[in-house]
Design a protein that fits this description.
Distance between the termini: 31 Å
Largest sheet: 2 strands, antiparallel
Radius of gyration: 24 Å
Family: Belongs to the jagunal family.
Subcellular location: Endoplasmic reticulum membrane
Strand order of the largest sheet: 1-2
Number of domains: 1
Pfam families: Jagunal
Order of helices and strands: HHHHEEH
Helix content: 55-70%
Number of helices: 5
Protein name: Protein jagunal homolog 1
Shape: elongated
Main location: endoplasmic reticulum
Number of strands: 2
């Protein structure tokens, strides 16, 4: 008997644990990957909330356009990037492979594609800022192009890691379902 405070069982020196069952590695990996993906989804929600607030504040004209610039065109389709996160959260409780695949595909469509478009849309303004030092849009006194490129870099990393970890999680779930079918 194992006991934290009491005496050790008679006839053992504590080295008899090797025969005990261990949790399969794909289950351990599944738990770890779910945790990492949830952290990335939270980071994505922070980015998504900031962009949503920018769109709302600028369109409702709650503050001057000198303080918060009008959103770029890529920001509107990026608002749909909440869909992959919802699919991801739905997939986790019951290890639902279908929802995880939908999450991965929609992350490419609703997250990565608008970010690529945003990079191309803002490039001429970034080049102008680099060459001439002139910016015409501002967010809290900073060049909107510089701020939004920083957001783009962070968002690409978040979504890239999210897709990567989702693929590894999908492989882990396939391993467990294949083992169940063999039995």
């Amino acid at each position: 008997m194992a006991s934290r405070a009491g005496p050790r069982a008679a006839g053992t020196d504590g080295s008899d644990f090797h025969h005990r069952e261990k949790v399969a590695s794909h289950y351990q990996m599944s738990v770890t990957l779910k945790s990492e993906i949830k952290k990335l989804i939270i980071a994505h929600l922070v980015i998504w909330t900031l962009l949503t607030l920018q769109v709302i504040v600028s369109h409702m004209k709650l503050v001057s356009h000198d303080l918060i610039a009008m959103p770029y065109q890529w920001e509107y389709p990026y608002l749909l990037s909440i869909i992959p996160s919802i699919f991801g959260f739905i997939a986790f409780p019951h290890n639902n492979i279908s929802y995880l695949v939908l999450s991965m595909i929609s992350a490419g469509l609703f997250s990565i594609a608008p970010l690529i478009y945003g990079t191309m849309e803002m490039f001429p303004m970034a080049a102008q800022l680099y060459r001439h030092g002139k910016a015409y849009r501002f967010i809290f006194g900073f060049s909107a192009v510089a701020v939004m490129y920083l957001v783009l870099v962070i968002a690409v990393q978040v979504h890239g890691w999210q897709i990567y970890y989702s693929k590894k999680l999908l492989d882990s779930w396939f391993t467990s379902t294949q083992e169940k079918k063999k039995k």
